[in-house]
Amino acid sequence: MTLNLSGLTAAQVTPFTEGGREVDLDWLPAHIEYLRDNGVNHILTLGTNGEGPLVGLHERKSVVDAVVKQSGMMRVLAGVGCLSMRDTIQAANDALDAGADAIALLPSHFFPDADARGLVDYFASVIESIPAQGRVLLYNIPPNTHLDIPDEVVLALLDLFPDQLIGIKDSSGDPERTRRYVEATAGSDFQVLAGSDHRHAELYQVGCQGGVSGMANIAPMLAKTILSVHRDTGDASRVQRQLNELRDLMLQFTRMGATKQLIAIVSGLPLTHTRPPNRDLVAEEAAALEAAVGRYLVGAT
């Protein structure tokens, strides 16, 4: 059964208490409501923007469970990538047990010289260890993993698991790389999702059916408008520039700290925290970011 992931998926942040000591599950419901009210169709939890690699196995299931309970009609995808294959398998089964609609599966990424055969073996071992009805979205993010999932790996896995493998989130940031995924899987139900916020408009042009956006935590309507304008007119470049301007302001600071500060500024939700080695903005940085965003919002009207 195909799991339709067209539309906008928010790569949701994971909220922590001060110092990153605990996951703050009480913060999640209001943020999910904010996303839903502003046009988000699906949620990816525990991905890169969710600081997933910093969340322990004992915490992951509680996060997925909390998100699923608040998600309503939104699909929930759960990032499960761990360095250990055994931990990835555990995380995958825990996420599906908690009600996730699909898992988002990174390659094991400590060994960047892994070849196609090794990657197929790794992914196959995980997929074979989840229930037959479990759905899998591959997650290609070479800037972080230093591994690009080759087309031949995608096609081999589609051949092995046609009912479970539903697509790939490509965060390479390279539209031509994304185009190759689209062309290689043409004629199938395989979905290629745009995964690089600053290039979503271009990625929709090369054939992505939907997008996964970290900036949707902050400005979901703006991220959603890029997709809507693309579908209506084919040219979402102006809206993309607006989103990129906001993103560029954020990237003047530490990314995760600035992301969470911006959520509080724009949405009015309470400030939530990062987990080390990410860090919150100090007071001077937070004030500078708020001033810059204030100028941006005035200029954008």
- The CATH class label is Alpha Beta
Strand content: 5-15%
Question: In one word, what is the shape?
Answer: globular
Q: What is the CATH H-level superfamily? A: Aldolase class I
Strand segment tally: 8
Task: Round the Cα radius of gyration to an integer and report it.
Answer: 18 Å
- Largest sheet, order of strands side by side? 1-2-3-4-5-6-7-8
Which CATH-level-2 architecture?
A: Alpha-Beta Barrel
**Secondary structure: helix percent:** 40-55%
CATH topology: TIM Barrel
Contiguous uncertain segments of 5+ residues: none
Helix vs. strand class: alpha/beta
Report what the structure shows.
With 301 residues, the chain is α/β, with parallel strands linked by helices. The chain has one domain: TIM Barrel, CATH 3.20.20. Helix content is 46%, strand content 12%. The chain is built from twelve helices and eight strands. Helix 4 packs parallel to helix 6, helix 9 packs antiparallel against helix 10 and helix 11 crosses helix 12. The longest helix is centred in the last third of the chain and has 18 residues. The radius of gyration is 18 Å and the shape is globular. The termini are far apart. The relative contact order is 0.13. The model has no long low-confidence stretch (mean pLDDT 96).
Task: Quickly list its features.
12% strand; alpha/beta; eight-stranded parallel β-barrel; 301 residues; single chain; TIM Barrel; globular; 12 helices
